[in-house]
Amino acid sequence: MEATAAPFSPTQNLSSSSIRASSPTSLFLSRKKNPGKVNLKFKSRLSVRASSTSDSVVTLLDYGAGNVRSIRNALRHLGFSIKDVQTPGDILNADRLIFPGVGAFAPAMDVLNKTGMAEALCTYIDNDRPFLGICLGLQLLFESSEENGPVKGLGVIPGTVGRFDSSAGIRVPHIGWNALQVGNDSEILEDVGNRHLYFVHSYRAIPSSENKEWISSTCNYGESFISSIRRGNVHAVQFHPEKSGETGLSVLRRFLDPKLPATQKPMEGKASKLAKRVIACLDVRSNDKGDLVVTKGDQYDVREQSNENEVRNLGKPVDLAGQYYKDGADEISFLNITGFRDFPLGDLPMIQVLRYTSENVFVPLTVGGGIRDFTDASGRYYSSLEVAAEYFRSGADKISIGSDAVYAAEEFIKSGVKTGKSSLEQISRVYGNQAVVVSIDPRRVYVNHPDDVPYKVIRLTNPGPNGEEYAWYQCTVSGGREGRPIGAYELAKAVEELGAGEILLNCIDCDGQGKGFDIDLVKLISDSVGIPVIASSGAGTPQHFSEVFDTTNASAALAAGIFHRKEVLIQSVKEHLLEKGIEVRI
């Protein structure tokens, strides 16, 4: 049975005396003459012993930030139960320990140090106990990080974690499915072969002569960086195995059961670089009977053109998400299209959708709609950070912000000051910018001359209805119902400055038309920002996907209605992209 105690959290009331009792003496590092190896020495009464727990139990260090529900679900899916870390002693007594680090480096180290977990982790690793760090759980093993720093890390592995260099022509964060260059004796990567794995991070560690003995694989993204380490029973990976489909589950399985027989032939694949992503989007709302359904708009109108004028019902959210995962979707996005109206944490069905979906869907999940500061009917104030935290705890990997980001950008452009108080800034600061997507809902506005408006105007590939050669893209809020005095270009530049890690670029004019993405718009935005851009609205055929990837710098393309109605299958899109020489995950 899974342990019933609540996971350790940075908000726990831990007194200084209890911390001192848990970590009676201090840790210090020393180096021998050989600079290639860090030697850990401890002045400590702490000791490590294997516990008598069942082989089916995994100890999980959840320090209270981000989505760890996914790793929990993956472990349960593989037949394991979970014991949550409550004290440093739980780390020391673990048979095997998984540390799924999520969020920013400095807050994580602060929590680990204040609770005595840092010393316990170093002791556990120094004794070569079975350990798997994931994402930030890898980065924290290094000596320091430049993220909001320098900030000291655990110091287990030589090196500094630095930010990707966007001047090399890459988009930061590194988001998506990339290939590994696997070294010898990597053990848990034995089944990966030439398959893609899912990365989402802005910071990385670089191979060096000092840490080369630790490296079990590297990945290329503008430069070669460390994608996994292994020494004895100690492993850590930069990618997210719990979000990397069946390939990622094979990595977890190898760690949990090292005695698994060697695979005769690794999984087949053709991974060589960062793949273009194909994303399935589910617009979710309640119908007139109160049931939560997946719907799809025609230029944002989701009601049938019939006497009943009912909400268009294209299926159940959890069922459709599960099917798209099986069909090969690289990510699944839930957009609560009426979330701007009501208190989002009152939307329990949407939270349940996330929880149920994450039990069997092992690719990234994004949720959006109504994420903002809110005061409920009783006068209780909820910050956008609290709202986002609930979604993360329920299984979301990324949060999509719409209207609130528009208001924040308008204020930023007007004042030139980052207040740090907007939902975008707050969530990005705590969880990292890779966890924040800004959804832009623009509408094309035709003009006769570029100087007609104070916004970025482009020359159109196809003239407007009255022969207009130019247009700007006016941003909207409240589900496209209200136009705002800001263009898509201006909004995209502003939200990148405020901390967005990705842009979901819709187009009201193309929505539901099936005539292709607005290439002019996608090119404008993807050429103007240094963060990934997801093209959305208008896909009707597989050719529309190859067109947007061939003619713009979009990192991903999203569709909804054509997948829901089975007019186009996800697998058909990917087969077509492969035929066109565009790398995708298969």
Label this structure with key terms:
586 residues, alpha/beta, Rossmann fold, TIM Barrel, 2 domains, eight-stranded mixed sheet, eight-stranded parallel β-barrel, 31 strands, disordered N terminus
What does this structure look like?
The structure is a single chain. The chain is an alpha/beta fold and 586 residues long. The protein folds into 2 domains: 200 residues, Rossmann fold (3-Layer(aba) Sandwich), CATH 3.40.50.880; 292 residues, Alpha-Beta Barrel (TIM Barrel), CATH 3.20.20.70. The protein is built from 17 helices and 31 strands. The chain is globular and about 75 Å long. The chain starts with 15 loop residues before the first helix and ends in a 7-residue tail after the last helix.
Widest sheet, order of strands: 4-3-5-6-16-15-14-11
Radius of gyration: 24 Å
Structural class: alpha/beta
Give the fraction of residues assigned to helices. Answer: 25-40%
Number of alpha- plus pi-helical segments: 17
Just name the CATH architecture of the largest domain. Alpha-Beta Barrel
Write down the CATH class of the largest domain. Answer: Alpha Beta
Tell how many strands the DSSP assignment holds.
Answer: 31
Give start-end ranges of low-pLDDT stretches. Answer: 1-53, 297-304
| N- and C-termini, Cα separation | 36 Å
Binding site for L-glutamine: 135
Main location: plastid
Domain Glutamine amidotransferase: 60-255
InterPro entries: Aldolase_TIM, Class_I_gatase-like, GATASE, His_biosynth, HisF, IGPS_HisA/HisF, IGPS_HisHF, Imidazole-glycPsynth_HisH
